[in-house]
Design a protein that fits this description.
Radius of gyration: 21 Å
CATH topology of the largest domain: Rossmann fold
Number of helices: 13
Largest sheet: 6 strands, mixed
Helix content: 40-55%
Bound molecules: zinc ion
Number of strands: 10
Distance between the termini: 70 Å
Number of domains: 2
Length: about 325
């Protein structure tokens, strides 16, 4: 007995892969299209490569992939590394061990396996050993020191700082990160809400480098987290599945709320996030850039890295922890 339209579809219209017509493995809701596993892998790899090559000028030689061990950055690494190595780029993987108990150990293993699978050299920065503090410590002392920011924002400052420092210290001219459409949508919305135009114009698939800021590429700019997870499943890639233990503490942060909002929006309007990002890039960012005030950079008097403030945000965290 047919009880629902869904049942009817299962019985009479078995979905087929758009490319080869064999039994479908996955539906891409925003394209209203189906793929078998093999053709989903090719669709995904082509998409990531196209985002990378369309926006990243061919001036870079040494690429540093910042990989966290989660589904997004690992999907990025596996889908892109082979093709870029073939094109003559020199590649390495960077993993920051943030010292998060019950999380960082697994993340590190996943990244070590990926680097070895792909034959890439791996740079590991151990935050606790090299800088004297861990994210766990920062989280536990946060209220005492009242940084005024959620722990995930502080962790973001630490990671961004180290990506740039490791890349510039080791001669890498491009940092490739696994920020997804979901992340960037949430950043755009929160920066619009708080009126932070300075950071808004940096939210694009490629940000050129400057005197001491290494250029950045975000090849997952148009990728939903959903697609990245599917890709790791399709290829059997080991990823850290458990959420970071600090992320529940994020409740109340604007970016978390906007991420949830996007998931809701997508249910009724599949592809709305993609449309948003395309228009943001094509139209909104251009007009903001036209009127954006220029930001003066200074050198941090402690670490010597460029920053909009002195000391830089990273050194201010260390100072407050008494680790500078
Ligand atoms: Zn197929
Ligand atoms: Zn500094």
């Amino acid at each position: 007995m047919i009880t629902s339209p869904y049942h009817l579809q299962r019985c009479y219209a078995l979905p087929r892969c758009r490319v080869c017509g064999s039994k479908a493995w996955v539906k891409i809701p925003w394209g209203n299209t189906w793929f078998c596993r093999t053709h989903f892998i090719s669709y995904f790899e082509k998409k990531v490569y196209q985002t990378f090559s369309r926006y990243t000028p061919r001036i870079h030689k040494k690429l540093l992939f910042a990989v966290s061990g989660g589904k997004d950055s690992l999907a990025m690494l596996y889908s892109l590394a082979g093709k870029l190595a073939e094109e003559g780029y020199s590649l390495a993987v960077l993993f920051i061990d943030l010292g998060i108990k019950g999380y960082s150990e697994y993340a590190r293993k996943a990244v070590e396996k990926a680097a070895s699978d792909l034959g890439l050299s791996l740079i590991v920065v151990d935050l606790d050993k090299e800088h004297g503090f861990s994210i766990d410590e920062l989280a536990s002392r946060k209220s005492t020191f009242s940084f005024g920011k959620p722990i995930c924002s502080l962790c973001g400052i630490v990671k961004r700082y180290l990506y740039n420092k490791v890349a510039s210290d080791n001669g890498y001219d491009l940092v490739v990160t696994g920020h997804t459409l979901n992340d960037i949508y949430a950043f755009v919305m929160s920066n619009l809400t708080t009126g932070n135009l300075e950071d808004l114009v940096k939210l694009r698939p490629y940000v050129p480098g400057s005197a001491s800021f290494v250029a950045r590429a975000r090849p997952l700019f148009f990728n939903y987290e959903y697609e990245n997870r599917l890709y790791t499943l399709a290829r059997g890639i080991d990823v850290v599945l458990q959420p970071c233990p600090h992320s529940p503490l994020q409740t109340g942060s604007l970016t978390t709320s906007f991420k949830k909002q996007l998931l809701e929006l997508e249910k009724e309007h599949p592809g709305i996030g993609l449309m948003f990002m395309k228009n943001f890039l094509k139209k909104v960012i251009k007009s903001i850039e036209y009127s954006k005030p220029s930001q003066e950079l200074v050198r941090c008097s402690i670490c010597g890295m460029p920053s909009s403030s002195n000391p830089c945000s990273f050194c201010r965290i260390k100072l407050k922890l008494g680790k500078a």
